[in-house]
Amino acid sequence: MxxxxxxxxxxxxxxxxxxxxxxxxxxxxxxSEDIKQLKEQLASLxxxxxxxxxxxQKHIQGLENKQKITTDKVQHQADSIxxxxxxxxxxxxxxxxxxxxxxPQISAIINGGFNHSSLEANQYSLPGFSRGNExxxxxxxxxxxxxxxxxxxxxxxxxYGSITTSLHQEDNEIxxxxxxxxxxxxxxxxxxxxxxxxxxxxxxxxxxxxxxNWDFVDAPLVYRAFFNNQYNDDGVxxxxxxxxxxxxxIGAEGFAGRNFPAGGTGxxxxxxxxxxHIGGDIGAxxxxxxxxxYLQTKPSQRQALLAGADEDDxxxxxxxxxxxxxxxxxxxWKWAPNGNAxxxxxxxxxxxxxxxxxxxxxxxxxxxxxxSRQNGGYVQAVYKFLPQWRTGIRYDRIWGNNQGDxxxxxxxADLLAQGYAPHRTSFMLDYTPSEFSxxxxxxNRDHSLPQINQQLMLQFIVSLGAHGAHQF
Length: 472
Known about the structure:
alpha+beta, 16-stranded antiparallel barrel
């Protein structure tokens, strides 16, 4: 009995140890095989990655070479064009043969509304200042103040042409006026431009803009008194935009001198002007422009309205002959977030003028010398607080001193203001549904006369057809 346990102890332990060792070796061999396979897979992945990386590097190198070739080709063409232009700076391109077609841009502006004034139009005057035939109040009630028709087109590669005709209603009659009709160069080198025909003078800031582009219904008092609302005439204008890093232009004009404040025969050079404008940006939100102007005229029997008279009254005017010099300065500052005026914009604008006139006036069969020193200006602020809504305020004032050798004649001509300075405050609110229409409400507290005149104006402006971009 003791022999069997001895055999079990003697042979069983080695057998179990051998079995365990065999099992361990088998497991170790299996793990080694798995590691070998993983290493092979890793090596395969590395090889595939290296191959794809090499392919991508070759592709990138090919694109860079292709881009360099294209860049060199473009640069060569640009150098060639630059050399050609440099060698032939004013050689014109031959115009294309005409096919007989004419496609001008045609537009019409309708400017109308309602006017109410506590003072009758025939009671209006500007004490101490001469008034032209347009320097009065608009007719009361509903009416079309102006209907403007414009045709413009490039005539050829060298010239551009524009014609603007205005229709007004005066005493239930329609009057047609040729506001502008000019040709303008569009191919002169070095920033030069020449305009010839009938056009609004480039003096000041508002004068060259059509009235439907103004921020208020009516012109400032200084424009009413000095320029008969706006000065246009027949003549020639030369502009030069200097090659400076900021905007700078210089201009000169010569006119026939038929219209107020000239009012001559128009047979010679009756009016001349000089003007200059500079401007630029202040950061991304602000821009500015500053201008100076000079206008010299030689009035010959220039007609001006007497107080309470209109242009159809033959006995309601007097004549002035002599010399007139006007000096002006204008400034504009605009702010908009990041320069984008679509949603918000604030504009501050102002102009100031000084005029000297020496000569004589004739009233009926009597005359008197006249020595005149006159001043005027306006300031205004317009704020766009929503994309389609704006509001604004304007203050304008004119004052002066007139002397002569016969005060009774000066008094009859309403040129002795006795120290009174006409002034006015205006408020406006307008709504712009689109770039082709605008509705405006304006209130004027007008002290042109010592008697206050309260004016309420409702204006609508619509544009039919093409219209050009507005100036700064």
